[in-house]
Every structure is written in C-alpha cells, then in structure tokens.
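To fix ideas, we quote verbatim a fold written out as tokens:
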Amino acid sequence: MGLVDLHSHILWDLDDGCRSPGETLQAARSLALVGYSQAVPTPHAQLRYGGGDAGLSRERLEGARALLAREGVGLALHAGAENVLDEELLARAGSGAARGLGETGRYVLVELPFQEYVPALPELVSRLLVKGLVPVLAHPERCVEFVRSGRAAEVVRMGAALQLNLGALTGRHGRVARELAERFLDEGLYAVAGTDLHSPEGAEEWISEALETLVERAGVVGLQRLCDENPRRALAGEDLS
C-alpha cells in the first residue's frame, strides 16, 4: 500500500519549500521512489507566505495533482497545512475554518517556535481539543519548549500527537534534535513521522537513510505504525494507536 507522509512543503511557490513545478515533480518522485504512496503537502499557513491563502493553496494542490497524473507519478496528494499554534488558529478552529489534514480535518498539524519557550502550551492544546480538533505537534525535537523535562509526555497525556521529523534521526537537524528524537522514540511518545520535505535535492538519499535508521531504532513495527498505520488513521479521522 505504501507509506504516508503527513508533513511536507512540496507545493511550489507557497512558502520556503519547492520553488517551481519542476521541483514539486522531483520531490514527489523521490517520495514515491522510497516507498510513499500518499502525501499531505502542508504549506505554512502564515500571511507572509502564499500558503496563508487557503484558496491559493487549494489551487496549487489541484495543479500538483494534475502534474503528477500527467507525469505518471504514483503519489496521491491530500489537503493540509502547517499552522502556528496561536490565538488566530484557535479563532479559525472555532469558525470551522482550521486547515486540518485530509478531508476530515480532525487532526491539525501545528508548529511552535524553534527557539522560544511556550509556557501556555498545555492551555493551547486543551483549547484546541475542546473544539474537537487534535493537534499534531510538528517536529517537537527541534523546539526548545520540548527540552523541558516531561513536557512532551505531558501534552501526549492530554491527547495531542507528536510528529517526528525523520531527518532528525540522522542528525540532519543537529545533535540536540537527534538526541531528543531518539529519547521520544524510545519512550513511545511519537504518533506519526513525516519528512518535512522542502526540496528535492538529495531527498531520495536522505529519506532512505532516515527510514533505515527508524527501522534500526524502532523495528519494522515502529516504521509501520509511524509512517503507515497512524497516518492513514489521521487522514480518516480515526483514533491513533
């Protein structure tokens, strides 16, 4: 059936990801070649990016789908966005306009600042859950907030999901991110894993290495849970294992 990637920036000219249809095509081919059959492009939903425009993002998604179909790339694309976890997102969630993952939208990919603490994180998570949405916290191993002892486990107990950036396991994001990723993985805190792919350059090689490292660390069962079973459940709006 193939793996499912819930986090990437492969739609062209929407944010700091792929810059052209050609790069989108190359990135999608790389994902397909390493075993992915589905992906959720998640442009940054920020006004400083084109990805902040939901209508434009949808148009670009449809354009990418047509491009992949025309070029024979077997990678199904779903709607999504990477949202800042803040008051603006909570307001959109209250109006039903949150940009969740897939058609159900029950799971919402959210990001925190890399270098700033977020003392209100438990409150923000709780408020999103009350609105019926499950926050999927992107790359927590890269965020200083999760250096705090017990913070990752706390939000998981509350009902949030953590998303591993696969590249962190190979040191792609630095030593601290790798150490935290290994710790959270060993503690069973991650619900899903994603590539966070921004560029096709070297993608096939580094993603393959990262998947192999994941298998070495968590076994084939761990790979299937984080890169196949739970991502499919998230797209279907089902509870994660």
About this structure: Residues 203-236 form the longest helix (34 residues). The chain is about 45% helix and 15% strand. The mean pLDDT is 97.
